[in-house]
Design goal:
With 77 residues, the chain is an alpha+beta fold. 40% of the residues lie in helices and 27% in strands. It has helices at 19-36, 64-76, and strands at 4-6, 9-15, 41-45, 49-54. A four-stranded antiparallel β-sheet has the order 1-2-4-3, with helices on one face. The longest helix has 18 residues, at 19-36.
Length: 77
C-alpha cells in the first residue's frame, strides 16, 4: 500500500507478523522522526498493525517534510 493523503495528512498502515515486530518498527521510526524534529501520529492496533499519520501541524496540511519522512519510514518497514 502506498501513502494516501486523507484529511490533510499522509496515512499508511503496515502489517507485521506479530506484536513484537510492530513495536520494534515503531521504535525504529523514532530515530528519523526525532532527527527531523517531525513527529508522526502512530496507532498500534489489531496487535500487529501500525498506522502512521503525517502532517505538518504548523502549516495545517501535508508538506515536503511529510513526504521526506514517509520515504524514510518506508525504508524501515
Amino acid at each position: 500500500m502506498n501513502w494516501e493523503e486523507i484529511n490533510n495528512q499522509l496515512e499508511k498502515e503496515f502489517t507485521f507478523t506479530n506484536f513484537v515486530e510492530a513495536i520494534d518498527f515503531v521504535n525504529r521510526v523514532k530515530e528519523p522522526a526525532e532527527a527531523m524534529q517531525h513527529h508522526p501520529d502512530i496507532l498500534i492496533h489489531s496487535y500487529k498493525k501500525v498506522k502512521i499519520m503525517l502532517t505538518t501541524h504548523s502549516e495545517g496540511h501535508v508538506t515536503l517534510k511529510d513526504h521526506e519522512l514517509a520515504g524514510k519510514i518506508d525504508k524501515l518497514a
